[in-house]
């Protein structure tokens, strides 16, 4: 099985781009999924994207968040 078929490759490929100090970074898989939603839903504002996703159960499920968890 090709390792590119599972989302774990995103962690391996982006490992060098994330720092170890300062504010915690957004999970790269969640970031990619948010960008995909923004593209498919034609949402260009980060704030509107987070608001849109926080109001939709299907988006929360896709992102892997529970209804009571705040989005990044």
Can you offer a commentary on this structure?
- The model is unreliable at 1-5 (pLDDT under 50).
- The chain is mainly α.
- Helices cover 50% and strands 0% of the residues.
- It has a domain at 24-65.
- It has helices at residues 8-14, 28-40, 46-54, 57-63.
- It contains four helices and no strands.
Helix content estimate: 40-55%
Provide the residue-averaged pLDDT.
85
Q: How many helical elements?
A: 4
How many strands appear in the DSSP assignment?
Answer: 0
Beta-strand residue fraction: under 5%
The H/E string reads: HHHH
Shape: globular
Structural class: mainly alpha
Computed Rg: 13 Å
How many strands, what sense, and barrel or not for the largest sheet?
Answer: none
Which residue ranges are poorly predicted, with pLDDT under 50 across at least 5 consecutive positions?
1-5
What is the CA–CA distance across the termini?
32 Å
Protein name: Transposase
Domain Transposase InsH N-terminal: 9-72
Organism: Spirosoma flavum
Pfam family, one: DUF772
Descriptive tags:
Transposase, Transposase_InsH_N, 72 residues, 4 helices, mainly alpha, disordered N terminus, 0% strand
In short:
The protein is mainly alpha-helical. Helix content is 50%, strand content 0%. It has helices spanning 8-14, 28-40, 46-54, 57-63.
Write the layout of secondary structure elements.
Layout: H1 8-14, H2 28-40, H3 46-54, H4 57-63
Protein name: Transposase
Domain Transposase InsH N-terminal: 9-72
